[in-house]
């Protein structure tokens, strides 16, 4: 993607300008970010997705008795009448299940793939919404159909209403209000409070959300992955890794339940040695960031024809790379030279043409064939 070219999506700013001036700093309202927008997915298709087991969906209603929340799958008869006010259907990860929505999501690849999460669609009847709240991540709110009024504010009081099934702010203090028409978009940095309410029926808003891992959560996941890899590597370990604890100077004790200081030091040394391996940390991070979500699975793959002229990643496939590795769907591969260049091109472009395939080594082609059989890649 050309990051210095002005983009209608960003109100005439280039991606580089947007990142410098607005990213995680302040909101940006863009009128006609997508001019003459036509939603890539019909309402009926969205409702059909909400019925599926492998799609996360929620129904939110607000009335005299307060807020209610119901998790999917949601068959059509479980949804209120289209003319009934104050209800919202949220369907998560629509970009994984619809090619048109996936293509729209690709317009945001001026951001690292490691940070892009998914595209959620909010369908609301008149006055429908989910209450005033804040997100811990950046979000782009794109109006696809109908109209929505957004009230936003740099909230300092983040206390939540008690006894409510949603995380709704107790004392929301809006500072600005905008009504978004189809094609308009609002960018909000993390923890910027917002309340969106449908103005009229048939309101569809696309939320392009970003990944923002909590420090402790990410650390726990990486440590678990590193521990698993470390235990597997022990099969080929050398003398240093297989060295056992010894204590020739251990005296007799009169408090047998007390742990020896030397044993604790030995344990700390073992952990420190594992954490000094920067390569292991990088591998664990790449595997974590490309791990498909629990409700994502791939369809039946097929053989890669020997005469394949084009390969493309499945829209559910997550693929990243660093200076030494290729990561795909929770797996990592050491890569260097021409093969690494080829795989990085596949990750960035999400496709390879006949010219690139003609230059691929036997090893690279074998790997592509494996991914094709797994349904991670499609060839023609």
Structure description:
Its cofactor is Fe(2+). Keywords: Dioxygenase, Iron, Metal-binding, Oxidoreductase, Ribonucleoprotein, Ribosomal protein. One of its GO terms (molecular function) is metal ion binding. Helices cover 27% and strands 22% of the residues. The strands form 4 sheets. It has an 8-stranded antiparallel β-sheet, covered by helices on one side. Strands 8-7-10 form a 3-stranded antiparallel β-sheet, with no helix packed on it. The model has no long low-confidence stretch (mean pLDDT 94). It has helices at 15-21, 43-50, 99-105, 215-233, 239-242, 261-275, 278-290, 337-349, 354-359, 362-373, and strands at 28-30, 57-63, 66-71, 87-91, 116-124, 139-145, 148-153, 176-180, 185-188, 193-198, 203-210, 311-313, 319-321, 325-328, 331-334, 351-352, 377-379. The two termini are 25 Å apart. Helix 4 crosses helix 7 (278-290). It contains 10 helices and 17 strands. It has 3 domains: 6-210, Jelly Rolls, CATH 2.60.120.650; 216-277; 280-379, Malonyl-Coenzyme A Acyl Carrier Protein, domain 2, CATH 3.40.366.30. It has 380 residues and is α+β, with helices and mostly antiparallel strands.
Largest sheet properties: 8 strands, antiparallel
- How many domain units? 3
Distance between the termini: 25 Å
CATH architecture of the largest domain: Sandwich
Quaternary structure annotation: single chain
Going by helix content, strand content and strand pairing, the class is alpha+beta
CATH secondary-structure class of the largest domain: Mainly Beta
Helical content stands at 25-40%
Average pLDDT taken over every residue:
94
Shape: globular
Structure annotation, total helices: 10
Largest sheet, spatial ordering of strands:
1-9-6-11-5-4-2-3
Q: SSE string, helix = H, strand = E? A: HEHEEEHEEEEEEEHHHHEEEEHEHHE
Strand coverage percent = 15-25%
* Counted beta strands: 17
Q: Outline the low-pLDDT stretches.
A: none
In the CATH hierarchy, what is the superfamily of the largest domain? Answer: Cupin
């Amino acid at each position: 993607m050309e990051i210095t070219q002005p983009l209608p999506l960003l109100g005439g700013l280039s991606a580089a300008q947007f990142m410098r001036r607005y990213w995680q700093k302040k909101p940006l309202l863009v009128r006609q970010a997508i001019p003459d927008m036509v939603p890539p997915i019909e309402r009926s298709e969205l409702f059909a997705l909400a019925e599926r087991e492998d799609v996360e969906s929620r129904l939110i209603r607000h009335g005299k008795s307060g807020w209610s929340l119901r998790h999917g799958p949601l068959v059509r008869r479980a949804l209120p009448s289209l003319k009934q006010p104050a209800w919202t259907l949220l369907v998560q990860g629509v970009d994984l299940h619809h090619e048109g929505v996936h293509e729209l999501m690709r317009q945001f690849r001026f951001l690292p793939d490691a940070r892009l999460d998914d595209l959620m669609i909010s369908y609301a009847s008149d006055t429908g919404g989910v209450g005033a709240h804040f997100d811990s991540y950046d979000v782009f709110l794109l109006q696809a159909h109908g109209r929505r009024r957004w009230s936003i504010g740099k909230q300092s009081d983040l206390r939540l209403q008690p006894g409510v099934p949603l995380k709704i702010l107790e004392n929301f203090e809006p500072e600005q209000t905008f009504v978004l028409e189809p094609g308009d978009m609002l960018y909000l940095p993390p923890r910027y409070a917002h309340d969106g309410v449908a103005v009229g029926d048939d309101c569809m808003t696309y939320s392009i959300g970003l990944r923002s891992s909590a420090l402790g959560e990410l650390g726990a996941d990486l440590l678990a992955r590193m521990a698993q890899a470390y235990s597997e590597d022990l099969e080929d370990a050398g003398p240093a890794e297989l060295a056992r604890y010894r204590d020739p100077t251990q005296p007799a004790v009169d408090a047998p339940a007390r742990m020896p200081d030397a044993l604790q030091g030995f344990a700390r040394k073992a952990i420190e040695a594992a954490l000094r391996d920067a390569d292991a940390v990088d591998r664990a991070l790449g595997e974590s960031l490309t791990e498909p979500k629990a409700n994502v699975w791939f369809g039946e793959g097929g053989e890669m024809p020997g005469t394949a002229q084009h390969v493309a990643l499945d829209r559910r496939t997550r693929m990243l790379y660093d200076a030494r590795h290729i990561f795909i769907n929770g797996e990592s591969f050491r890569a260097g030279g021409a093969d690494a260049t080829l795989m990085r091109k596949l990750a960035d472009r999400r496709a390879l043409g006949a010219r690139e395939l003609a230059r691929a080594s036997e090893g690279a082609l074998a790997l592509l064939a494996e991914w094709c059989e797994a349904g991670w890649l499609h060839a023609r």
